[in-house]
């Protein structure tokens, strides 16, 4: 591994989850100072990752997490928004609004809030990179057989938010880009084991992604290799959307 992220401070939300953990592990291995943010599971973060508690449903929690990061050290903190939740196979006509509010609250409001708070500080310090994790569910496909209308809508909004922030902030040095995975082997899918074989069958490459395969794309958008990417979205779905 090279030290290509040496001297960079990067916060990762959802750090205790399947993809977030892989992103943290890989960034630390490449020399970054990584702040793993999550509302739970901070004890199990990879070695070298500094954990801090955050609840994306609370504006106060997000504001104070960012304030604490800068109180400890004034260097810019870049951002990977990886936290997310999905409803369990719920028909739209029966969707409880509490589920709607939870999924939209974490996936859209939470991502907006972290972008606003981290973005403001990056703008004030000359720039940096923000990478949001959306999903193939946002624009490329509608998942099946499970019904997850709110999740799909929230992810379409994350993609639109990334493009919108890229236009507002790109000229001032903050690059915002989006990674949209297909099915990845993580706890997010753990409750839907009966669907796994069908999902794999319908994926051209015939398998789930490993979390590290999503981390590689995040690294690309964080690195100078993607210096001309502004509001881009990379679909990494093993060909699922082609079928
Ligand atoms: N796994 C997949 O197949 C897949 C596919 C496409 C997109 N994604 C997206 O990738 C991202 C990561 O997914 P994953 O598979 O690693 O999921 P995961 O369930 O393993 O991890 C999600 C993390 O988000 C955290 N989180 C949830 N609510 C939070 C809150 N209110 N405040 C702070 N943290 C909170 C959880 O504690 C958890 O650690 C999500 O945005 C997800 O929608 C996943």
Q: How are the SSEs placed, and which strands pair?
A:
Elements: E1 9-13, H1 18-29, E2 33-38, E3 50-53, H2 59-72, E4 77-81, H3 97-124, E5 128-133, H4 136-139, H5 149-169, E6 174-181, H6 196-202, H7 211-222, E7 233-236
Parallel strand pairs: 1-2, 1-4, 2-3, 4-5, 5-6, 6-7
The chain binds nicotinamide-adenine-dinucleotide.
Nicotinamide-adenine-dinucleotide binds at residues 13-14, 16-20, 38-41, 54-57, 82-85, 106, 133, 135, 181, 183-184, 186-189.
Structure description:
InterPro entries: NAD(P)-bd_dom_sf, SDR_fam. Belongs to the short-chain dehydrogenases/reductases (SDR) family. Keywords: Oxidoreductase. The protein is an alpha/beta fold. The protein has a single domain, classed as 3-Layer(aba) Sandwich (Rossmann fold), CATH 3.40.50. It has seven helices and seven strands; from the N terminus they run E-H-E-E-H-E-H-E-H-H-E-H-H-E. The protein has helices at residues 18-29, 59-72, 97-124, 136-139, 149-169, 196-202, 211-222; strands at residues 9-13, 33-38, 50-53, 77-81, 128-133, 174-181, 233-236. Strands 3-2-1-4-5-6-7 form a seven-stranded parallel sheet, with helices on both faces. The radius of gyration is 17 Å and the shape is globular. It starts with 8 loop residues before the first strand and ends in a 7-residue tail after the last strand. Nicotinamide-adenine-dinucleotide (NAD) binds at residues 13-14, 16-20, 38-41, 54-57, 82-85, 106, 133, 135, 181, 183-184, 186-189. Nicotinamide-adenine-dinucleotide is lined by residues 13-14, 16-20, 38-41, 54-57, 82-85, 106, 133, 135, 181, 183-184, 186-189.
């Amino acid at each position: 591994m090279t030290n290509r992220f040496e001297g960079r401070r990067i916060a990762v939300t959802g750090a205790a989850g399947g993809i977030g953990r892989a992103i943290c592990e890989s960034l630390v291995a490449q020399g970054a100072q990584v702040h793993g943010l999550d509302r739970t599971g901070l004890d199990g973060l990879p070695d070298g990752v500094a954990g801090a508690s955050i609840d994306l449903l609370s504006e106060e929690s997000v504001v104070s997490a960012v304030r604490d990061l800068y109180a400890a050290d004034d260097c810019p903190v870049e951002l990977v928004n990886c936290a997310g939740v999905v409803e369990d196979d719920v028909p739209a006509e029966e969707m409880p609004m509490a589920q709607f509010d939870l999924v939209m609250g974490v996936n859209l409001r939470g991502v907006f809030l972290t972008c606003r708070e981290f973005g403001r500080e990056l703008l004030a310090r000359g720039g940096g990179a923000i990478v949001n994790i959306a999903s193939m569910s946002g624009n490329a496909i509608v998942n099946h057989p499970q019904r997850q209308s709110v999740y799909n809508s929230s992810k379409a909004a994350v993609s639109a938010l990334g493009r919108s922030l890229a236009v507002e902030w790109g000229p001032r040095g903050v690059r915002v880009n989006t990674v949209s995975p297909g099915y990845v082997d993580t706890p997010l899918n753990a409750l839907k084991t009966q669907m796994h074989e069908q999902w794999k069958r319908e994926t051209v490459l015939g398998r789930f992604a490993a979390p590290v395969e999503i981390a590689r794309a995040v690294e690309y958008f964080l690195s100078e290799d993607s210096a001309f990417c502004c509001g881009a979205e990379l679909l990494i779905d093993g060909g699922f959307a082609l079928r």
